[in-house]
Specification:
Distance between the termini: 30 Å
Shape: globular
Helix content: 25-40%
Largest sheet: 8 strands, antiparallel, barrel
Strand content: 25-35%
Number of helices: 9
Number of strands: 11
């Protein structure tokens, strides 16, 4: 399926909106929603095995989308916060096998990352595998910067259970920082995440790449399309083949295969990332 620039929400000017404006938009649209606790969110929609669909929108379109969700939609709130800072470090082989599997759309592929919730300090080592259109996520508590022997055993087992083969010698490949809000759709047992203020950094480098004026909305459901998907489709938006890791790595490294994301990487948020 070919995704048009209008469907991506990229037809509006990007350079007129600041990162601060993006956060204000989310605060306004999310503030009107009833809160849900982390415990209830996980109880009603943990979805460690799920179907993910990603959509790339402008902040204004994302704000309108949130406002149009069913009245029963609830927003994750912890200690009065509804938007949370995340840092993810993605690991890959020396030959970037995980990246290439995504770029070449291999049916069985996996990602290994650490994820730190900066507002709470909690951190996990996570393995995501994709098989037959479904995503399976496994994770364990994490401390450290490298994958040690015990962690390597967990990674190898999770990848093997997903039918994915990666060299056991995994190295940090990309750091991604972003702001996330999470919405529960209780009637459907589904959730929606809204990521903005994306920043990429290569290991061992001080330079960062900021992607402004772009919001990644991801729906997570047990299989069938959720009310959030159906709303986005009615608004003229279709799932986009974006990966925060793979697209992010291709942003500062133009020598890597990028045909899958060529149109997206030519839009102002990525073309002007610096």
């Amino acid at each position: 399926m070919t995704t048009s620039m209008t469907q991506l929400g990229m037809d509006a000017p990007m350079t007129m909106r600041t990162r601060h404006d993006d956060r204000d938009l989310h605060a306004r649209s999310l503030a009107a929603r009833t809160a849900v606790s982390l415990e209830e969110l996980n109880e009603r929609a943990s979805l460690l095995t799920r179907v993910d669909r990603k959509y790339v929108l402008t902040p204004a379109v994302a704000d309108a989308f949130v406002a149009a969700l069913p009245a029963s939609a609830r927003v994750l709130e912890i200690d009065g916060r509804r938007a949370f800072r995340y840092t993810s470090t993605y690991f890959d082989t020396a030959g970037l096998d995980a990246f290439l599997a995504t770029a070449r759309r291999r049916p069985r592929r996996g990602k290994v990352r650490t994820r730190t919730y900066l507002n709470s300090g909690d951190a996990f080592l996570e393995v995501k595998t994709r098989r037959k259109g479904s995503t399976v996520k496994s994770r364990i508590p994490w401390m450290g910067e490298r994958i040690d022997r015990d962690a390597a055993g967990f990674v190898a087992q999770a990848l093997a259970e997903g039918g994915v083969q990666l060299d056991s010698s995994l190295l940090p490949a990309l750091r991604v920082d972003y702001l996330r809000s999470t919405i529960l759709l209780p009637d459907a047992g589904a959730r929606v995440t809204i990521d903005s203020d994306l920043t990429y950094r290569l290991p061992g480098q001080d330079a960062t790449w900021h992607v402004n004026g772009l919001v990644i909305v991801e729906t997570k459901s047990a299989g069938m399309s959720s009310p959030a998907d159906q709303l986005l489709w009615r608004l003229g938006h279709r799932p986009a083949g974006i990966s925060k890791y793979a697209t992010g790595l291709a942003t500062p490294r133009p020598e890597l295969p990028r045909n899958r994301w060529h149109r997206l990487l030519q839009t102002p948020p990525f073309r002007t990332a610096a």
